[in-house]
Amino acid sequence: MLTIGFSAYDLAVMRFAFSPMQEIVASVRVLKDPAAHALHVPWVKQVAPRVAAAAGAFDLLFALVPVPSWYIPDFVTPPPTTPVPDLQTELADLRRTAPQQVRTDLDRLTTLRDPARRNAPPPGATTRGRAGTMPNCTPCGPTPPRGWIASPGK
Q: Over the range 132-149, which residues count as b (16 or more CB within 10 Å of their CB) and which as e?
């Protein structure tokens, strides 16, 4: 049997809305690793030549969506502010991201890409707060983030 634990904070920040930016991130993951998404190979064959023809226009986006990875910088997929967001709204939200938040998220991404630093807590981190800021928040780390699925006895 599996147990999923949620705190009051987890439930307060939970959203049930689709996100155009999240769909873009999912699409980038498929484009970067089509073998892991066999169902979407026909779509990849259709879209990949257009992405290649864009000559680097997507380089920054592709760099922000590492594959494989469980972490995407939070500012790339801001929480939807409406149950039915549109891409223009989410892009505007992304542009309003505070520079310090971008820096924090990019530092986290860099840390997680470096196996030697992966389990090191970020400066000033505590075990409280959002799962993305917890110090041992790696898939095999000793402290699973709140909301992760955990098996009893592990």
A: ebbebbbeeeeebbbbee
What pLDDT shows up at residue 111? Answer: 83
The rounded mean pLDDT for the chain is 77
Contacts with 7 (C-beta within 8 Å, 6 or more apart), sequence order? 146
Confidence band for 2, pLDDT divided at 50, 70 and 90: confident
Q: Which amino acid is at 84?
A: V
CA distances from residue 101 to 46, 71, 76 in whole angstroms, order as listed: 35, 15, 11
Q: For the beta carbon of residue 109, count every other beta carbon within 10 angstroms.
A: 19
Instruction: Kindly state the average pLDDT of the residues 2-24.
Output: 86
* Collapsed DSSP state (helix, strand, coil) of residue 123: coil
DSSP letter (8 states) at residue 115: T
